[in-house]
Amino acid sequence: xxxxxxxxxxxxxxxxxxxxxxxxxxxxxxxxxxxxxxxxxxxxxxxxxxxxxxxxxxxxxxxxxxxxxxxxxxxxxxxxxxxxxxxxxxxxxxxxxxxxxxxxxxxxxxxxxxxxxxxxxxxxxxxxxxxxxxxxxxxxxxxxxxxxxxxxxxxxxxxxxxxxxxxxxxxxxxxxxxxxxxxxxxxxxxxxxxxxxxxxxxxxxxxxxxxxxxxxxxxxxxxxxxxxxxxxxxxxxxxxxxxxxxxxxxxxxxxxxxxxxxxxxxxxxxxxxxxxxxxxxxxxxxxxxxxxxxxxxxxxxxxxxxxxxxxxxxxxxxxxxxxxxxxxxxxxxxxxxxxxxxxxxxxxxxxxxxxxxxxxxxxxxxxxxxxxxxxxxxxx
Length: 380
Ligand code: SF4
Hints:
Low-confidence stretches: 1-7, 283-301, 372-380
Bound molecules: iron/sulfur cluster
Distance between the termini: 20 Å
Order of helices and strands: HEHEEHEEHEHHHHEHEHEEHHEEE
Strand order of the largest sheet: 6-7-8-3-9-10-12-11-13
Radius of gyration: 22 Å
Largest sheet: 9 strands, mixed
Oligomer: single chain
Structural class: alpha/beta
Number of helices: 12
Shape: globular
Strand content: 15-25%
C-alpha cells in the first residue's frame, strides 16, 4: 500500500473507496500462450483509485472500452480484483457469500444501462420490487406493510399513483418509466451508494434530463453517494459534483466538474470536450450558416494523429497510454508512465506536461507530482 494512502487524513463523508485497483482478464487463446509464454491478458483497469462521498455525484467519463464500466462492476464486487483494495466505511470489503458480503451488497447497488434487459419481461413491477424488498428484509410482516413499502418506493422515483404501475409488465412502460423501476428496485435495499452505469444512454434524449434530475433529487433527499458512468462529458458537467476521466484503463484527470469541463488539463480531456457538440462553439466570422463549418474546437487529424483509435489493452502502449494519439507527446511519454500532478483548485492530471514548465499550455502552471505508484484519485 502506498504511503499516500496510509497517511491520508480521514474524510468522514467518504462511503466507498477504491485504492490502486486493477483488473486483468486472461485471454484464453493467443499466440504467446500457444508458445508457452505468459498468458496474455486484457489490462481493463490499472491502478485506479477513487472515493465516493455521501450526498455527492462523481462522474466517471471516457470513451467505450476505457474501463469505466469495469470499475463499476469491481466496486459492486461482480468481479474479483486482480490487485488493490475496496473499502466500505474504511473497512476492506470481503467477497464471497457471508454476512459481511450481504451487508456490502445492501449498501452498494447498481443501476444498469439497459432497462429493457435489466427487468424480466415475464414479471410485473410488483414482482421485481417485492423480490428486492424480501431479499433485503424490508417487505414488512403483513400484506399492508408490503403495499406501503411498494407505494413508497414508486413514490420515490415519481411513478405515481403506484396502483397504475404496480401490475404493469416492463413492455407496457416507456423506457424512462422502466429505468425508474430499475432505480426503485435498487432503492429497495436502502443503499448508501448507487453505481449508475450509463443510466440514460439508452433513453430518448427528451426523457434523459428527467431521470438525471430524479437521481440528483435522490442524492439530496437520501444523502446517497452516486457514481455516474458516462461517455457524455457534457452531462457530467450538468449533473456531477466531481468528474474523473479514464483512458485505456487508467485515470488521467480529475477535479470538480466545473473546472474539469471548463479548464481541462489533460490532452485527452480536451479531445473529449472538443468532440462533444456545442452550439456556442463557433469561430468569429464563421457563424455556421454555410452548413456547420467554423467550429473552433473541432478535432482535426493534427489533434488526434492516430485517427481516434484507442490502443489494444492486451499490449497497451508503454509510458503514457495516450501517447500514440497525443499531439503534445514528448520523448519521455513513450517510455515513462506519468504520475498524477496536482494543479490548482483540487484538479489533477496524469500528464508529463505539468512536470515541464515550458510545455504547459497557456493559462496553466506546472503541477506537483504525487509519490510514484499512488495511482489517480478523485479530488477532495
Ligand atoms: Fe500527451 Fe505526454 Fe501528457 Fe501523455 S503524458 S497526455 S503523451 S503530453
